[in-house]
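Before the break, one more example. Copy the sequence into your notebook; we will annotate it together after we see the structure.
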Amino acid sequence: MARSTLGFLLNAFSLSTILLVGALLQSLLHIFLPLRYAMLPAAFLLLLRISDTALISYGFKHNSYEDPIKRDKWTAQVPEHDGVPQKASDKGVVVFLIGAASNHPAGPFAPGFKTTGDYFRDMFVEIEADAAKWGYLGRSNPLIELNPSGTFTTLTVSYWASIEHLHAFAHGASHREGWAWWDHYRQSHHDVGIYHETYFAPRGNWETIYENMHPFGMGKIRFPVNKSPKLEAEQQQQQHPSSQPPPPPRISGLVPARDVKWRGMANRMARGMSGIAAPA
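Here is what the structure looks like once it is written out:
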């Protein structure tokens, strides 16, 4: 949590602002410490970073940055209830982009920006608490784009089963509460902007490919699947002898893209026989 918050702040401010903050901290050290000692923290940290990079680059140290990646080529599909994707691009997918922009020199500390983010968070909490009801599949972590003016815009990519599910959530409690607050806020403030974009990809009109990637986008989604009655009974006796049955297990929709069935864009869109030649 702390690392993600720090990453957000570093991305939300310009490089010049970050360098100025660093220069200020270094100047404060010069006030309280002799010069040769004041330089030690920055020099030590820089040497540590350079040494770590060199050791990894020349193979003397394990590259932990690669630990979370899925090696080789993979494609994300929507599995059936038994966990097996029977056909490529067999279901339609709604891609919903939502985010906010800070139009203020204070960046994420702009008046109203935190409240906007809190409402966004509450909406996703409600969605994820009952994903099946809303037809919600999953989402990315928030992404940040720096604008030419020096401000920034956030982006969260989410995936839904249908337009009808998404529209139903728009009339849900948390979204209506957030919209009521925004409707009041925007009458006298322009420090924060919000937006959304909605795209519907019918079955046979979308595909994905990932190679040596951290789970990302649709590749991050874990789908609920059915269990056999025997397995469910065993787990209930062993882990939940006197409580409610455990929730259904979730699995990744990623499948190896080098298999003939999933090789090439045309096959991943179930158009392998239509003459489309688009290998990936």
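The radius of gyration is 24 Å. Confidence is low (pLDDT under 50) at residues 273-280. Try to locate both features in your own notes.
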